[in-house]
């Protein structure tokens, strides 16, 4: 059983409800509203109210019960009091101006935004940052307010944009400068550029970097083919095996022929 649907809708003085066929008509000081009736729901006009009950015991009838009662209540409230939506504009240079049946918005675009106001809806701008939308039809008032807000939704960093009055905007904290002791992702993710210098031990020795530089430089891959490799050849643009015997100066037959004694330097070279 619907807790909302079982309560009758109270009709105040000055409101005249009538049912003609499958249509409910509500007349009042704010105008006249009509609503189509559902076959699954039974509508009864009683003394001082309207009773809304399901016509049968089906699941579909129970689903429409509470919603139809709320829609009837919106008709009574609309023709007696009306509905109002208030929008607030925040941002440098953002403003609104009501010009007859037209609403002019300046929201930071290269052109002004002109919105036509439908019949039965009244739009006022008490100041250039406030928009008041009023009318007897709740659906039309809410739809126009949503369309206006759609042109510039409030952003989470500075809150600039168009928002409803009383709407909570989840705010985010922007990136702060590094001098305040906060972590800077850009600095941590960008190490010093990879630089390799040619060794002075032997003219045929490859260009290599230290183990720490080769390991920390982004995009480089250490050679894992054998345990003797400890660096990369950046001059060739590819991985190159640099064995431990290179550090000792023993470069094989050619090094021994040139007179290297293990120090890594050619005796004939200054």
Describe this structure in words.
There is one protein chain. The protein is of the alpha+beta class. It contains six helices and 13 strands. The strands form four sheets. It has a four-stranded antiparallel beta sheet, with helices on one face. A hairpin with a 2-residue loop joins strand 3 and strand 4.
Per-chain topology:
Blueprint: E1 9-10, E2 16-20, E3 23-28, E4 31-36, E5 41-46, E6 49-54, H1 59-80, E7 83-90, E8 95-99, E9 102-106, E10 113-116, E11 121-124, E12 130-135, H2 138-150, E13 161-164, H3 185-189, H4 211-216, H5 244-248, H6 253-257
Antiparallel strand pairs: 1-6, 2-3, 3-4, 5-6, 7-12, 7-13, 8-9, 9-10, 11-12
Strand neighbour order, sheet with most strands: 11-12-7-13
Report mean pLDDT, rounded to a whole number: 78
Low-confidence stretches: 182-190, 209-220, 222-239, 262-267
Helix content range? 10-25%
Radius of gyration of CA atoms, rounded to a whole number = 39 Å
Instruction: Characterize the largest beta sheet: strand count, sense, and whether it forms a barrel.
Output: 4 strands, antiparallel
Beginning-to-end CA distance, first to last residue: 102 Å
Strand content: 15-25%
Summarize the helix and strand pattern as letters. EEEEEEHEEEEEEHEHHHH
General form? elongated
